[in-house]
Structure to design on (1222 residues):
């Protein structure tokens, strides 16, 4: 019983300094089956953290426990870890199928067995049309899928993804993000995903850690961190983005009705199922009365907080969900807005980002 | 009217002087001989023996450089340590000294009454006037070339490939042989060819360490001294042809 | 407990074999001689003359390579033309043939009764057994090195620098001397050093073309053959020292 | 008389193909004193066009007339042209002052004279504190300024700028754009500026040309091209961005009142003088009556056109200036919007980009 409920991966005050990068006294637990995102700016030591977990480097001090085994100084080949580096590092001297089968071939599986399993995972991951291709002919998104297949075929205890979306163009990025969600449903792996992009963290992460300068500053569910950033640094990095998780529950032509947990909004999107919704604070208009307006979304709320956010004034409005709105001081004075006042938030269905 | 590019014209004229100086000697020899003479040279038992000796010795020297130089090159490419730079420089010294001096150094260190030579002679390796002497002398002057080539080949292989291979379950050795080595293959192969060609080309060190058995480069000198310039022409043409093949092969490898 | 990295351990052990094979001969010689003997070697008039002959000839060969090879290298770096690749390959053939063969080629092409040699002799250049013979032989075996080095140096200079200089009013030549050449300076300088060292190291071609005047590499052989191994030690140590200085200078240039 | 009023630069059916780039039958006139922008996507042949004008390449056919002289086959050093390539190409083996003085030194000016003129232009361009620096220590923006000084010191007939802002980060980009405007006032040069960014073209260009696939598709004033793009391709590239030129005429705290030529709007900016204003079509709300709203800008207008712009509906509204507004079909039907209807456009001062 204890084994099953114990965390899959535990880092106990792990420290390491390597070249210009540092990890300082990191304590972390990743639960079984969890998609864990580590978010931080470039140079925070995120890649080094993954490499310590993978065994590519050994910590200067501290312990790494994987599946109840101390793996701190175990070489990478004895850890059973899937590692997808930032550039994917597909072996250029092998075909796609040989890349994917590499981990099984190295384990001494028969040629037939390897081929069979490569076929199986490729079908699952939707890349079986790529198997005979040269690695150099793949697009960025295809490379990413192949790299995932190569890492997942060995059924690793944990999958490590180093900025898996950063090398892709915005469209492919979104596509691969959906793809990761899909294959997670099929293969149910545990993963650590490292990124500097808050949207990825919120969209993919069951839980997340915020990392600055080699230190973990906060761990929790993304929504928790948005609502209660432990300090200014974290707050500035997560940003006031009116970022919500929701579900498309109905459609009217181009318009989708999205349930954000109680609050319902309309957005122009063709997406279905679970989505992320972001509304920039500059794009929300405040009305004192309901008017005939082209904005599809009008939410009633109460001003909770008014603060300076040069050059703007920032309002926090509770409209079922916590919204942030930026106004000019001028508008604030003109409308006579004060804490506790009842207002209407209006924003256009076309001004909402859905992803 | 388009302006003639004066600089390229002038530079081409200047440059053609050295092109001519280098290529004329090679062209001329083919006017002074013919395929039959070259064929006859290949039937000459002394020439054949010398070729065999030289090519085998060069192959053994290259093989030794490969076996011991490849691991060294990999360590140099992947690990930093104190004085690494100095070590790499010193290993290139054999390329920067007169070849006869290289010969003296080799003979002095490895002759059968030296401390190292004594140990070598117990396993049957005597360098004076022996096939082994040719191999050792060739190794000394050509191994640095192989090491540089392999080292730069390994440096160009992104370490991340190795990291991924290891997480996939390949041990460090398996990773080296299934990932690193194949990716550095081209540099290794051109290193082998250049090293072998350098070994074949040696004269000075062989004159000191092992004038016998007769290697092909020394046979050319012997023929020239004994029978004059024209006697050396067919064998020269033959060796020039081999040189041209080597260079074109290298070009082919680097083009791919 | 930290795991020992087996591969690096094994590879270091293997690699140290070749490190030892290359460095031991150089180390040993310094145990067999001393600064006084080396100093005495420098007072030996025959040695001094041979050194002077060799260094001057090598300098002249290098200078010729510089004067004619630099423009050629620039053209090769900037212009594409038919068979350029083949031309570049063929110019490297002198590096891939036995040095005695190189000597035969040079002698055959440039001896005083050959068509080229006749023209050369009219301006006082005779190659057989002459200082000029040493220069020409050295040029043949070392110029390809200079050309490669300069060419790669020029290739690394972004053409945009030249474009800007020309819009600013510099003609093509002025642009070359004020912008291109200074930016390729480091490659040119290391090319000069390596070319000079290669010229100094030559034995085989000199034996064929010009055994006299005595160059230092041939003097080492002569001393060795006449008086035995120990007689060659001081001069060997001296030349080894020079080689080490050359290599460390090159390292310094590439480090900057 | 004729000479003074004739165009400074004339390209007569110039064609050239070089590597993968092409120029096809280009005819172009650049007037004296004009800032001329050539806009087109990557690979359109913009750089090749500049290089033909500079004399770095010669055309396959056609003529180039500079200042009434046929310079078609004249080498670059005899054209008197200032060329600032995309990477600036500052000579790394010279100090900043020697870079700037290069053109004069090459002309045989005395050392003192060179130093004097370098000093003079550096003061004018505000870079005299950089003169003793190594080129490698300069930031991108500093390199750009030095490259401009080096090109301008020879008093070229025309200055050619190859994507001068593309290598800079967004902030420096804006700074250098202002800088170019400033030094143009001081030095009054004629320039051709090549870019793929429409904003640069509108902000800087007196006139502009749109280039696709080696062909010039349209020439004219930026505003002309926005309002009357000759074809769909141009229209798609210029985009419907509600981009206007204006002037800050008053300030109220953080708020600036900007005159867009008749129409006045409020925007949150600290800028003064001439500015560019952009309002994204998604960020404009349509009201049927004036309401108490936090949006600072409410303009009355008449719907001129309603068209599909999947996934949105695009409205053209004449509110003194032509505005484009994106709505969902839903909003269109709800508000019963039709061509000719009088509406109010509302947009927030904080949702306007000013640059």
């Amino acid at each position: 019983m204890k084994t099953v409920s114990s965390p899959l991966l535990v880092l106990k005050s792990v420290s390491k300094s390597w070249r210009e990068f540092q990890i300082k006294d990191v304590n972390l637990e990743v639960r079984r089956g969890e998609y864990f995102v580590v978010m931080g700016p470039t140079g925070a030591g995120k890649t080094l953290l993954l490499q310590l977990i993978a065994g590519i480097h050994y910590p200067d001090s501290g312990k790494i426990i994987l599946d109840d085994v101390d793996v701190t100084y175990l070489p990478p080949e004895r850890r059973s870890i899937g590692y997808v580096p930032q550039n994917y590092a597909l072996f250029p001297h092998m075909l796609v199928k040989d890349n994917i089968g590499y981990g099984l071939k190295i384990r001494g599986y028969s040629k037939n067995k390897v081929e069979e399993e490569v076929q199986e995972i490729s079908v699952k991951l939707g890349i079986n049309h790529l198997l005979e291709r040269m690695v150099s002919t793949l697009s960025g998104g295809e490379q990413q899928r192949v790299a995932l297949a190569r890492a997942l075929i060995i059924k690793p205890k944990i999958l490590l993804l180093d900025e898996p979306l950063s090398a892709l163009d915005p469209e492919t990025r979104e596509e691969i993000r959906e793809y990761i969600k899909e294959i997670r449903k099929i293969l149910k792996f545990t993963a650590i995903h490292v990124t500097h992009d808050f949207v990825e963290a919120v969209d993919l992460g069951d839980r997340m850690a915020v990392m600055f300068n080699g230190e973990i500053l906060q761990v929790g569910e993304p929504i928790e961190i948005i609502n209660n950033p432990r300090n200014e640094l974290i707050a500035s990095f997560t940003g006031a983005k009116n970022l919500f998780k929701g579900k498309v529950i109905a459609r009217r032509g181009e318009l989708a009705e999205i349930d954000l947990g109680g609050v319902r909004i309309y957005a122009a999107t063709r997406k279905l199922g679970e989505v992320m919704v972001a509304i920039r604070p500059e794009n929300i208009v405040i009305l004192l009365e309901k008017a005939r307006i082209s904005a599809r979304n009008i939410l009633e709320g109460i001003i909770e907080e008014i603060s300076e956010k040069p050059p703007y004034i920032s309002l926090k409005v509770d409209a079922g969900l916590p919204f942030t709105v930026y106004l000019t001081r001028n508008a604030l004075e003109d409308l006579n807005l004060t804490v506790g006042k009842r207002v209407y938030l209006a924003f256009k269905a076309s001004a909402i980002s859905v992803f | 009217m388009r302006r003639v590019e004066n600089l390229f014209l002038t530079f081409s004229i200047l440059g053609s002087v050295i092109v001519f100086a280098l290529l004329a000697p090679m062209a001329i020899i083919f006017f002074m001989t013919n395929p039959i003479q070259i064929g006859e040279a290949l039937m000459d038992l002394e020439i054949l023996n010398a070729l065999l000796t030289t090519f085998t010795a060069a192959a053994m020297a290259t093989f030794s450089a490969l076996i011991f130089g490849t691991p060294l090159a990999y360590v140099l490419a992947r690990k930093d340590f104190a004085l690494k730079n100095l070590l790499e420089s010193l290993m290139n010294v054999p390329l920067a000294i007169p070849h006869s001096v290289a010969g003296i150094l080799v003979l002095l260190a490895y002759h059968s009454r030296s401390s190292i030579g004594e140990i070598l002679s117990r396993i049957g390796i005597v360098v004076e006037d022996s096939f082994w002497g040719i191999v050792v002398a060739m190794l000394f002057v050509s191994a640095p070339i192989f090491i540089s080539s392999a080292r730069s080949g390994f440096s160009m292989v992104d370490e991340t490939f190795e990291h991924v291979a290891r997480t996939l379950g390949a041990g460090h050795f398996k990773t080296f042989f299934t990932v690193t080595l194949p990716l550095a293959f081209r540099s290794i192969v051109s290193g082998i060819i250049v090293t072998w060609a350098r070994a074949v080309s040696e004269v000075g060190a062989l004159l000191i360490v092992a004038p016998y058995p007769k290697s092909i480069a020394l046979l050319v000198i012997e023929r020239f001294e004994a029978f004059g310039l024209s006697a050396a022409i067919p064998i020269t043409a033959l060796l020039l042809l081999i040189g041209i093949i080597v260079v074109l092969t290298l070009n082919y490898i680097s083009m791919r």
Observations:
- Chain C has two domains: 1-32, 45-255.
- The longest helix of chain C spans residues 45-78.
- The interface with chain D takes residues 158, 160-161, 163-172, 174, 178-179, 182-183, 185 of chain C (CB under 8 Å).
